[in-house]
């Protein structure tokens, strides 16, 4: 519903003033597009991307739109040649695919122009052809046939069927040199993969509910639940959350393996700490080191695609703030911060209790301990523990608390004679220039 609403907002944004358009477009770019990408909702993503470009850089959008229209007939004719040759050849293998082509989105073309520093006319791979077949094995057969007809570019081949993306996307990507020496990106997938690629996690509602689909849905939205948990945690910093959101949702991925051959996907630049927390929180907490490709490495080592990783752990190990210097995933950083903050809170409460007890004992007011603790509301705190924690952190002094309690000076003391006061008379014998009314102890010597 929110995506549909945002699509409508962006489609009608031209009716708003330029000042109002900008923040809406930026929010769409920074939040909605990454989420659509992570949910595998390609249709929504590229539509939003184009509308963002149209809003934030209307000149570039109009320029690309104009050039695409001027070459539209020529492009359609070219795509027909490709689709016909593929269809004819695949029929010989009793494969009857749906083959169609279209230019890449305006925002995608603009991204290539900026990334490569080239003009529209110098971007050759703006055509994309899609081959949709019935079965997975037909995908690989179609790939072989395609490479027989057109020469493939080796470094531009990716098999997302064998190693799906974290958003559930599956497809074979290959780029070939077509007629007239033009580069064409071809995507080969099954009908079910096509649904998932276009509408992502929403594709699960297209099929009848069942145990298999329910499990698939859970796996696709598990990361979203984790992100919401991080967002709602006390330790969350909204600015850092937005930064981590972009890393988790929009960064390139690497594939790493455990010694048992289990496959895991992580953002690029992930470290063993990120991997450990990805597997399990306790494994992350107890991580003391890692073996990458059978060699012991530091915890700040960047993992690479295809690495074999094993985590070394010890129950005596606990997280520390230094891990935040190289942990990049929101899950790892959130759990580290949560653990360290909890330890610091517990230590502050311990120190606060000691300070409070010693101070009240010295003031002969230990019997008023409960009264002191009940004053937490006067400082806008949530409870007694928060009051003790504030004392332990040095954010609140005993004097400040007593000043807030009505008639605290008239409270009956535990032992009236010899009451110690925070305020002492100035010494007649020794003067401390510029300082008065401070607590001071004189050495016996």
Automatic annotation (TrEMBL):
Pfam families: HD_4 (PF13328), RelA_AH_RIS (PF19296), RelA_SpoT (PF04607), TGS (PF02824)
GO cellular component: plasma membrane
GO biological process terms held by the UniProt record: guanosine tetraphosphate metabolic process
Domain TGS residues, every copy: 252-313
Family: Belongs to the RelA/SpoT family.
This protein's name: TGS domain-containing protein
Originating species: marine metagenome
């Amino acid at each position: 519903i929110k995506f549909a609403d945002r699509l409508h907002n962006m489609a009608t944004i031209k009716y708003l003033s330029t000042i109002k358009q900008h923040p809406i477009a930026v929010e769409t770019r920074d939040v909605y597009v990454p989420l659509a990408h992570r949910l595998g909702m390609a249709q929504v993503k590229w539509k939003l991307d184009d509308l963002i470009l149209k809003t934030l850089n209307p000149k570039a959008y109009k320029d690309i739109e104009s050039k695409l229209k001027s070459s539209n007939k020529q492009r359609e004719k070219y795509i027909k040649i490709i689709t016909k040759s593929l269809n004819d050849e695949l029929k010989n293998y009793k494969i009857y695919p749906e083959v169609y082509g279209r230019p890449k989105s305006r925002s995608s073309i603009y991204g290539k122009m900026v990334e490569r520093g080239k003009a529209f006319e110098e971007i050759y791979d703006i055509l994309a052809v899609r081959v949709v077949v019935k079965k997975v094995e037909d995908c690989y057969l179609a790939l072989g046939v395609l490479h027989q007809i057109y020469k493939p570019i080796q470094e531009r081949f990716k098999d997302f069927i064998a190693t799906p993306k974290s958003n559930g996307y599956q497809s074979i990507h290959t780029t070939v040199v077509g007629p007239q020496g033009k580069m064409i990106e071809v995507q080969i997938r099954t009908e079910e993969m096509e649904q998932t690629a276009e509408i992502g996690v929403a594709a699960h509602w297209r099929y009848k509910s069942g145990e298999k689909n329910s499990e698939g849905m859970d796996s696709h939205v598990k990361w979203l639940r984790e992100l919401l948990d991080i967002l709602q945690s006390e330790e969350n910093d909204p600015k850092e959350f937005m930064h981590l959101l972009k890393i988790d949702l929009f960064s390139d991925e690497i594939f790493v393996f455990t010694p048992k051959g289990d496959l895991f996907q992580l953002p690029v630049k992930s470290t063993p700490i990120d991997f450990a927390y990805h597997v399990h929180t306790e494994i992350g907490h107890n991580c003391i080191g890692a073996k990458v490709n059978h060699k012991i490495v530091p915890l700040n080592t960047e993992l690479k695609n295809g690495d074999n990783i094993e985590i070394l752990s010890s129950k005596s190990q606990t997280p520390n703030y230094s891990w935040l210097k190289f942990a990049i995933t929101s899950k790892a950083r959130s759990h580290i911060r949560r653990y360290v903050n909890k330890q610091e809170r517990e230590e502050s409460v311990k120190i606060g209790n000691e300070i409070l007890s010693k101070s009240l004992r010295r003031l002969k007011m230990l019997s008023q301990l409960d009264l002191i603790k009940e004053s937490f509301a006067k400082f806008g705190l949530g409870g007694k523990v928060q009051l003790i924690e504030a004392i332990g952190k040095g954010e609140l002094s005993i004097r400040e608390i007593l000043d807030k309690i009505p008639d605290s000076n008239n409270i009956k003391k535990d032992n009236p004679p010899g009451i110690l006061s925070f305020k002492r008379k100035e010494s007649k014998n020794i003067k401390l220039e510029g300082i008065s009314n401070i607590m001071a102890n004189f050495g016996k010597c």
